[in-house]
Amino acid sequence: MRHFDQFPLPAAAADLSSIALLLDVDGTMLDTAVTPKSVFVPESLRESLEQLYAKSGGAVAFVSGRLIADVDRLFAPLRLPAIGGHGAQIRPSGNGRTQARHADLIGEDCRRQVAASVSGHPRVLVENKGSSLAVHYRLAPHLEQTLKSKLASIVADSGDLELMHGKAVIEIKSRRFNKGAAVYELMQNEPFRQRKPVFIGDDVTDESVFASLPLLDGIGYSVGRYIAGASGMFCSPRQVRDWLAELGARA
Question: Which residue in 24, 26, 72, 203 is the catalytic one?
């Protein structure tokens, strides 16, 4: 397993014309925060991404569990191609329109049950993403097992819904979409087509992307822990930001 200082960097700008950078956001480029809204985006990261986007001919994309509109707000005024909502949304061009890959919403009955399951726990946050529900318990870590058990019961009778366990978050979504399938779709569009995808991700929700990379002749790096299919590992989001800055500077 290679670590940060062993990753190869391109020797010339031509290298960026042959790859597509696919980047998870939270826990990968951005340090984890107490709540989703309290994450901090360094200006230096915006500058690195803008530089890479220009030098690669537009082949840099966010691959996030956040909705694309939320990612846009975080990185404004920068707009990149993006996959949002764990694959429920896609935008092949930074200047394009967000497309819904999956129209099914979480049913009202499920929403009511989730709300009831966290009732009386004000430090547990429920984030409605339309295509999924995220239950954040970073402010109440002692409730982890209780929440996992309650939410598992809610989805047990539904053949379409699944639970994804992230860092202090449990997400309910449809089984019909994931990041990996959305990445495969994105790579059929220009300027990503016929390039080698280079993906960086950190969480369980990114595992479907690592699994899809062999189909695309791609390569992936994990952050903070080993993920099956990863060719190397960054120790922290800060090292990812440093690597992106160096990648842009050397190109």
Answer: 24
Same domain, 78 and 162: no
Entry field: residues in the chain: 251
> Are 231 and 199 in a shared domain?
yes
What is the model's pTM? 0.86
Angle at 69 (CA atoms; ends 78, 184), nearest 5 degrees: 85
Tokens at residue 164, please?
């994804």
Q: Does residue 126 share a domain with residue 20? A: no
Q: If pLDDT is split at 50, 70 and 90, which confidence band does 9 have? A: very low
What's the CA gap between 24 and 83, in Å, rounded? 9
Chosen domain end from 174, 189, 208? 174
Q: How many CA atoms lie within 13 A of 232 on its CB side?
A: 17
Read off the tokens for 9: 């960097």
Tokens representing residue 142 in the block:
């002692």
104 carries an active-site annotation: no
* Domain termination residue (choose one: 123, 145, 174): 174
List the CATH number of the domain containing 122: 3.30.70.1020
Other beta carbons less than 10 A from residue 179's beta carbon: 29
User: Do residues 95 and 63 share a domain?
Assistant: yes
What six digits make up the tokens of 214? 């062999």
Confidence of residue 251 (pLDDT cuts 50, 70, 90): confident
Output the six-digit token pair for 209. Answer: 């992307």
